[in-house]
Fe2OG dioxygenase domain-containing protein (Grifola frondosa), 362 residues
Amino acid sequence: MSNFSSVPVLDYSLVSDPARRPEFIAQLRHALINVGFLYLANPPVAREDTDAVIAYAPKLFEIPEDEKERLRMRNSPHFFGYSRVGAEITKGKTDQREQFDFGTPFEARWKPGDPEYLRLWGPAQWPEESLLPGFRETYLRYLKQVETLSYDFIALLVEAFGLPSGALAPFFPPGPMQHRAKVVKYPARDSVTSDQGVGPHYDSGFLTFLLQASDHPGLQVQNLSGEWIDAPPIPNTFVVNIGKALEKVTQGLAQATSHQVLSPPPGSTPRYSVPFFQSIAQEVRVPDIQLEFSPEILRLKDERGAVGASDSVNYSEYGQYPSGQVNLIGRVKSHPDVAERYYPELFKKYYPDGLPAQGSAY
Ligand SMILES: O=C(O)CCC(=O)C(=O)O
Ligand SMILES: [Fe+2]
């Protein structure tokens, strides 16, 4: 059984065309249930902002070493900032990528005595303006548009699954929220020690909107037969995929799909990408929200078949803890040096033998 052999391309401009909107919704239903990945063409994000973010990506990694040191993630209780190549392990092997974690604007609200996971949201660390003029403002303007798209996309998903319009509203209560976003660099194979850019994994929250910020192939998506299907860059698209929390709350209808990135070949320039990860309210326990799907929709899942053996396991804790806690655990596993400093109890739980050389997310 192989449920897909390519990643479908959906044209967002159909959404505002009353005659063709049903076509989009049908394609979306298929992509959510059978693939868990799609390309979104003509997304409602200003082209000039997307192009500017793409142009900034290589420059961000050229800021001086002492600025990278100042911005290192260890300086942020919110797990924002710079991570060098080799800081993380996925599936037992070191990831060959360098990255900056940023977030949408958020004022820290955690105080001692509050649940620890509330501390995950707070201000990001930004490079000195004079070192990269305009970057912060441009990137935040870009993120705001992707955030709006992410909510609009949830409404389309609710429609595609035949749910009442407010069905997922408990995950987005009024008031401020924070979404995470990164800028990632994958050096070519000859300057790193393996071709694992990032190993097989699932994303955590609801939706991921990935901007492939250079021409390199390398992103791959695993189908139900275990085959790795290429998802090469397509200009003016986002790659959209489903996180574990959304899979869980939709009873597996929206499928979280394992994916990985292979390093560019020797002699190549580096690959860059800019993923945006849509968050959900930190206090919500996913199993507390029970959705009712029609038998016709549920049958589509049965026709797909069970999600087969895949090469990744992570974020299984959504059945148990508030979603903020699940994400905090994920961060602690990935970045033990940050955990040791700001979350000593959790650090002891996951690293009883002390600080490892690298984090191991999955
Ligand atoms: O860089 C990419 O294309 C994908 C990155 C990714 O899957 C992740 O960071 O979760
Ligand atoms: Fe991912």
Remarks:
- The pocket of 2-oxoglutaric acid (ligand 1) is lined by residues 184, 198, 203, 210, 219, 259, 261, 273, 275 (CB under 6 Å).
- The first strand starts at residue 9 and ends at 11.
- The longest helix spans residues 135-160.
